């Protein structure tokens, strides 16, 4: 309950923030690198690199989008705020993460 908020943040959310930040940085670096390869003429096969970039970042983007509202909602809940919109997005996107990951898998 209420007395374990510090433990919840220390044991779950801080490692999750680290994973979240590393994922966002890796997506940005991957997009930047493949953009450079595609637009600076390093590669002769630009279509293949564009497809590769799209496939590579899809899963990470799905992860980031589906979990950002869960993290925001839990932080707001920890400080005593319970906004309906954030709670709704947290519930919907957390439950549908597997669906969107499978859509990304099928689409790729």
Average pLDDT rating: 84
Helix-residue proportion: over 70%
Strand content: under 5%
Low-confidence regions: none
Overview features:
single chain; mainly alpha; 108 residues
Describe the structure.
With 108 residues, the protein is mainly α. It has one domain. It contains four helices and no strands. The chain has helices at residues 5-39, 46-78, 84-95, 97-107. The mean pLDDT is 84.
Structure described in brief:
By secondary structure, the chain is mainly α. The protein has helices at 5-39, 46-78, 84-95, 97-107. It has one domain.
Topology of helices and strands:
Blueprint: H1 5-39, H2 46-78, H3 84-95, H4 97-107
Helix pairs in contact: 1-2, 2-3, 2-4
